[in-house]
Design brief:
The complex is a heterodimer of chains A (260) and B (1014). Chain A has 260 residues and is an alpha/beta fold. In chain A, 27% of the residues lie in helices and 23% in strands. Chain A has a single domain (3-258), classed as Class I glutamine amidotransferase (GATase) domain (Rossmann fold, 3-Layer(aba) Sandwich), CATH 3.40.50. A 9-stranded mixed sheet of chain A has the order 2-1-3-4-11-10-9-6-7. A two-stranded antiparallel ribbon of chain A has the order 5-8. In chain A, strand 10 and strand 11 form a beta hairpin. Among the domains of chain B are: 34-208, 2-Layer Sandwich (Mth169, Chain: A); 837-1014, Alpha-Beta Complex (Phosphoribosyl-aminoimidazole Synthetase, Chain A, domain 2), CATH 3.90.650. Chain B has a 7-stranded mixed sheet. In chain B, helix 29 (906-918) packs across helix 32 (1001-1008). Classes of the chains: A alpha/beta (260), B alpha+beta (1014).
């Protein structure tokens, strides 16, 4: 059975619904406090999937995800690099994505934090936004995202605008197949605000590392797992589940096959 | 228990209790007046002026935008400062001067600066900062002692990661903001910008083109010897002086009772004892007015609270009410093995002075009530309602000492946002009401719903249990919150209360939440309560009321040294809770809290002495009899006179252009879209939402209530809503209260809530009830609550009153209109049957439930027409409960596709909202609207369109189920009034068949979004 580790710390607040989505997707899931993992980093290697869930780690003081990223770099930097090199999967959602960006893992093993190419900046609107958007899976290195699929999902963040250090950084991410998800209109056409809730570069919602096994995204797939999560379910026919659950199920399946 | 406002302190305390302390910090440098500061400074005076600390200022790279700067510029242009175009925000940090330059550079690059977005300017201690290209710099920094959560996080991160270097002493950090403004500004304009937008003088120090920042803690008052207050020898005038000067808010009668008690004991009280009595006996801890004796025009009311609100619940005796009126929140049965708890609090006076901090600590306080109910419930939803002055008030009309209502509203929204979002609790319900009389005294209501295991509904305290305080540290913040909230606001409140405002730290409270619920499930404690108003004195005093308690105040962890025993005891510092822990479980409990990175300290134990004993080091600083503390309050006797209920019935005029009136109503502040607020709240976290705050094809329909599915494996849900209408209050307080209950119930029934399983909460916010006519309106409203709750069979399970909401300026007293906020919590048997208000399908019939009367008093139509007076809507207590049950039966039977209650703006507004939310046209025929006798002087179609009569719904019914639907309403008022259309227009025919409204849905949408949008 595929096993997943959900990491929490002070201010994490999506660990319960994230663990629920993983369990419903067939993963044996454990939620662990960061302090415990720092004390016993070997526990990382018991899991096929590491998930950094959403929230406001350490209040997002200084900047969103900054202090958690800082702690991951200082206390688990080597363990995480080894974990990814050995084929482990990492998912960062919202605040988890923000922390993941801070670790430099998305740029790949060659670069440490100092070589960071991407950042998540304050939303263009200047404030927090909670709303539903449509995502399109882009053709990318990420092995569990079926290219072209459109799916609805909510976002809720104040700092979700992907900014690249320069145009060549964007080009490198594109060439390496690291652009994983984009915000689009419900029919797939290009979106503008509020369909792109944060002003992200090229409407990018999620990126992966060069291996495709480390993915970060701002939207919350775990908040679209029940038949009643969609804001317009009362206008739809009967539903079995929300579209976000398929995202987790595919990840668990692929990670299970890859790490078996 | 009806508990108190969260907490806030107005003032350096205790000038009347002897020279206990001075709040003035010991300055690191002597501030000079601007005239005497040489600029540029000589070398020696520069050293005195610049902070003795490393200064790191972090800016976004110049090629990037600066959203915060742009937002500030927008707000300043609104103030008429047209030159506010190019503004950028720098985030500043001051760090210990002992650090090496290389270490500071490392801290900056490793922790403080994003390498892609930002760059830093670093300045060594006592040096002038790196020159900036900005024309002006406005520096904003928290006053010494005001909480600065970011600084604490920075210190902790540096410490943990060893960035300060091997063996280094702990690094101290302080934060500040730098607003860099380009363009031409005068000194006066910069001061205006700082005062109105960039800073809040209550909590911030502002320096304009002046780099002298402080780097200091609040001054350490010398630890004082035990102090006794000479009460036994005091005459009545001295007693009154002691109470007033010490901000005790005790009446002469109460001071006399205390004097008599200590005369019997043969000693004088200590300051800690007197403070404990003042906190415990304060108006909002004891509800002395609501529970006191009232002479109502000669009729003696022994206890209004007991005879109205509580009587309704007791007499209804519903078996699903688990715990009402004696714990931190009301608890009702929910599902197998689970209960839900709910509490709504006010945090008015703090929010008037610091909207952001006041609202934030309001949210934090009510969350702790839920954490402290039974053995602790998990918070799953927040609800927030705001009552503010007119948003379009000219700046010149804002009374002295008040903030503009826009700033207040933006601030409270941001405060709720930042605290609620950080706690991971979805804010799913709320409202905004605007009235000129809230200008000096806005109302901020914060509520929380919690989920708790059925076997955790009650708590106990045994003698010998260890008293453990968990969460935040204790500081000098929030002293005298209880007494402050019991006094009226005035134009000097800002000045008086400037030194002790509280700032919340949501993540500290999140740590408490995580650790507490784990400890609860491991059964490591027996009792728990929150620290609210009165701080430890109230929390420990309440928990130990039946047995006794001994506390060692020197064991309480402090934010900084130098607090006196009494300060520690009554501080209302946020994010603290108190546990009763069996001694054998103490070690495991402390271990668990350490794992969660949450401080926990044993500070004493419960006893069987019946006394509250306080030690500070070797000294006993207080010993109070628990019985006297809790039962010794002399009962108040207050006079009330029956209010003059307005009985005039001005004519409801015809409206020549009903479409124009409708569009104006849609953009009026109480009705207009609240999307700008809703989107800033994380209403999706925890993944429980079934009916969201906004619904419909474009997510722009205002939902009547929120529906949540709290347990992932059960389809049972809860519906949460509120009702209020302050416009009705002055005309007819009885009708106002009854209508507010009806509205809250309509809202939950409209989304699928079961009226047989609905609990309600009362939150009274009134003017000064020392005035008999003011108290008379409270009596009427409370009696309406009793009658209405009994008729609907909806018990009150919790409540709160805030009875001194007036603003006094030099030449006037502005009392708020009598305001009752009713919150309803209903069970939804199957969330699959929940409803939204957007029209679903062309061709379906649309029904109107309920009878329309010529009730336009306080209506939005009369306000729009500038007509005073009139008959206020009041529900028909015989028919209304039946109508709610009939509608619910039809919903459960699956006949209903969409449902919306008729409230502000009446039928016309409800129809418009249903139509644009559904993206479908609606054709209505006013001739078919069921009406009561209208009176010849009223224009019948205006009444049908805009009356706000109670217990009415617009219901889209599945065409094939129309007869099933009608059958549920046998003997009740119901009519099919129209049809869902496939076009995109709202078309209304008058009773004579003429088209009186014909408008595109897009025009309705535009109007609805046309109000203030933040």
């Amino acid at each position: 059975m595929t096993s997943a580790l959900v990491l929490r710390t002070a201010g994490t607040n999506c660990e319960v619904e994230t663990a629920l989505a993983l369990e419903r997707s067939g993963a044996r899931t454990q939620t662990l406090h960061l302090q415990r993992l720092i004390a016993e980093p070997a526990r990382l290697f018991d899991a096929s999937i590491l998930v950094l869930p959403g929230g406001f780690s350490y209040g997002d003081d200084i900047a969103a995800g900054r202090v958690l990223g800082h702690e991951l770099r200082h206390f688990l930097g080597e363990a995480l690099a080894t974990y990814v090199a050995r084929g482990g999967f990492v998912l960062g959602v919202c605040n988890g994505f923000q922390a993941l960006v801070d670790t430099g893992l998305l740029e790949g093993p060659a670069s440490g934090g100092a070589q960071r190419q991407i950042a998540l900046s304050a939303n263009e609107s200047g404030h927090y936004e909670c709303r539903w958007v449509t995502l399109r899976n882009e053709p990318s290195r990420c092995p569990w995202l079926e290219p072209g699929l459109l799916w609805p999902v909510p976002v809720a963040h104040g700092e979700g605008r992907i900014v690249f250090k320069d145009s060549s950084a964007l080009e490198r991410f594109r060439a390496a197949g690291q652009i994983a998800l984009r915000y689009v209109r419900a029919d797939g056409r290009p979106a503008a605000y509020p369909g792109v809730p944060n002003g992200s570069t090229e409407a990018i919602a999620g990126v992966c590392d060069p291996t495709g096994r480390v993915l970060g995204l701002m939207p919350h797939p775990e908040r679209n797992q029940s038949p009643f999560h969609h804001p317009r379910w009362t206008r739809m026919g009967p539903r079995q589940e929300g579209e976000g659950l398929a995202f987790y199920r595919r990840m668990v399946e692929v990670a299970g096959r890859a790490t078996r | 228990m009806r508990s108190h406002e969260g907490g806030f302190a107005p003032n350096p305390w205790c000038s009347g209790l002897g020279d206990l302390l001075s709040l003035a910090p010991e300055p690191e440098f002597q501030p000079l007046s601007p005239q005497t500061v040489p600029q540029p400074a000589t070398a020696s005076s520069t050293q005195a002026a610049f902070p003795r600390a490393w200064r790191v200022e972090v800016y976004r790279r110049p090629e990037l935008d600066d959203p915060e700067g742009a937002r500030a510029a927008g707000a300043l242009r609104e103030l008429g400062l047209a030159q506010a175009r190019d503004i950028r925000l720098g985030r500043g940090y001051l760090l210990s001067p002992e650090l090496d330059a290389a270490v500071v550079a490392g801290i900056a690059s490793d922790l403080l600066v994003d390498p892609v977005l930002e760059s830093a300017r670093i300045t060594p201690p006592t040096q002038a900062p790196t020159p900036s290209s900005a024309a002006h710099r406005v520096l904003v920094m928290r006053r010494p002692g005001v909480m600065d959560p970011v600084a604490a996080t920075v210190e902790r991160a540096i410490q943990r990661s060893g960035l300060s270097g091997a063996g280094g002493a702990p690094v101290r950090a302080l934060c500040f903001s730098v607003w860099e403004l380009q363009g031409s500004w005068t000194r006066a304009e910069l001061e205006l910008a700082a005062a109105k937008t960039l800073a809040n003088d209550v909590i911030d120090e502002v320096r304009i083109d002046d780099e002298r920042l402080h780097f200091q803690l609040p001054g350490a008052g010398a630890t004082r010897a035990l102090e006794r207050i000479a009460l036994r020898d005091a005459n009545d005038a001295t007693l009154e002086h002691i109470s007033r000067a010490g901000h005790l808010s005790l009446t002469l009668l109460e001071m006399q009772a205390i004097r008599a008690h200590f005369a019997d004991l043969g000693r004088d009280p200590t300051s800690a004892e007197l403070e404990t009595l003042a906190q415990t006996w304060s108006e909002h801890c004891k509800h002395k007015t609501f529970a006191g004796v009232i002479d109502y025009d000669g009729e003696r009311i022994e206890n209004l609270l007991k005879q109205t609100i509580k009587a309704a619940t007791l007499e209804l005796a519903l078996p699903w009410c688990v715990s009402v009126f004696h714990d931190n929140a009301g608890v009702v049965e929910f599902d197998a093995g689970w209960h839900v708890a709910i509490k709504v609090e006010t945090h008015n006076h703090p929010s008037a002075i610091d909207p952001y901090g006041g609202a934030g600590t309001g949210v934090g306080g009510v969350i702790r009530d839920i954490l402290g109910v039974g053995l602790g419930a998990k918070p799953i939803a927040n609800t927030d309602a705001f009552f503010v002055g007119p948003l379009d008030l000219p700046v010149a009309s804002v009374p002295k000492g008040c903030m503009h209502p826009r700033r207040i509203l933006r601030g409270v929204v941001a405060g709720v946002r930042d605290y609620g979002n950080r706690m991971g609790i979805p804010t799913v319900n709320g409202g905004v009401w605007v009235d000129p009389r809230y200008v000096g005294n806005p109302l901020v209501f914060c509520g929380t719903v919690g989920l708790l295991p059925a076997d955790c509904a009650s708590k106990a305290v045994h003698p010998g249990d260890v008293i453990v305080v968990v969460g935040g540290r204790t500081g000098r913040d929030g002293i005298h919150g209880a007494t402050f909230s019991s006094a009226e606001l005035h134009d000097e409140s800002v000045v008086v209360s400037s030194s002790a405002v509280q700032i919340g730290n949501a993540i500290t409270e999140k740590r408490v939440l995580d650790a507490l619920l784990r400890a609860r499930d491991a059964q490591l404690y027996r009792g728990v309560t929150d620290c609210g108003a009165g701080g430890l004195s109230s929390a420990v005093g309440e928990m130990g009321a039946e047995c006794g308690a001994e506390v060692h105040l020197e064991r309480v962890p402090l934010k900084y040294p130098g607090l006196s025993a009494a300060e520690i005891w009554i501080s209302e510092a946020q994010e603290r809770m108190v546990l009763a822990v069996p001694p054998e479980k103490l070690e495991r409990l402390l271990q668990l809290f350490a794992e969660e990175d949450c401080e926990a300290s044993a500070i004493g134990h419960f006893t069987s002495t019946g006394k509250l004993t306080l030690h500070f080091g070797a000294e006993c600083v207080g010993e109070l009899d628990m019985h006297f503390l809790h039962e010794g309050t002399p009962k108040w006797l207050r006079k009330a006179t029956r209010p003059v209920v307005v009985h005039d019935d001005p004519a409801c005029p015809p409206c020549a252009d009903a479409t124009a009136v409708l569009l104006r109503l849609l953009s009026s502040p109480n009705i207009a879209s609240k999307e700008w607020i809703i989107r800033q709240y994380d209403h999706e976290v925890q993944g429980l939402g079934v009916v969201k705050p906004l619904c419909g094809v474009r997510d722009d329909g205002p939902s009547d209530a929120a529906v949540l599915q709290p347990l992932p494996d059960s389809r049972r849900g809860i519906a949460l809503s509120c009702g209020a209408n302050p416009r009705y209050g002055l005309l007819d307080p009885w009708a106002m209260a009854s209508a507010a209950i009806d509205e809250a119930l309509r809202n939950v029934v409209a989304v699928g809530g079961d009226p047989e399983r609905t609990a309600i909460l009362d939150n009274f916010a009134w003017g000064n009830c020392a005035r008999p006519e003011q108290l008379g309106t409270l009596v009427e409203a409370a009696r309406a609550c009793y009658a209405t709750a009994k008729a609907y069979r909806t018990p009150f399970v919790s409540g709160k009153d805030s009875l001194n909401n007036e603003f006094r300026s030099v030449d006037e007293v502005i009392a708020i209109p009598p305001t009752l906020l009713v919150t309803a919590l209903a069970r939804v048997d199957d969330v699959g049957c929940a409803l939204t208000m957007d029209l679903k399908s062309a061709g379906n019939p649309v029904y109107l439930v309920g009878l329309t009367h010529a009730e336009l008093g306080g209506s939005h139509f009369f306000a729009e027409q500038r007509i005073e007076g009139g008959r206020v809507p009041r529900p028909d207590l015989a028919l209304a409960p039946r109508a709610l049950r009939a509608l619910h039966a039809a919903v459960v039977a699956g006949c209903v596709r969409a449902c919306h209650d008729l409230s502000e703006g009446g039928l016309a507004v409800a129809a418009a909202e249903c139509a644009f939310a559904g993206g479908l046209g609606l054709e209505l025929d006013l001739a078919r609207v069921p009406c009561g006798p209208l009176g010849a002087h009223h224009e019948p179609d205006s009444v049908r369109l805009f009356s706000e009569s109670c217990t009415r719904f617009l219901v889209e019914v599945e065409r094939a189920r129309a007869s099933d639907f009608e059958a549920k309403f046998s003997g009740l008022d119901l009519a099919c009034v129209g049809t869902v259309a496939s076009h995109e227009r709202l078309v209304v025919r008058s009773s004579s068949g003429r088209v009186c409204i014909d408008v595109e849905l897009d025009a309705l949408r535009a109007a609805h979004r046309g109000g203030f949008q933040g």
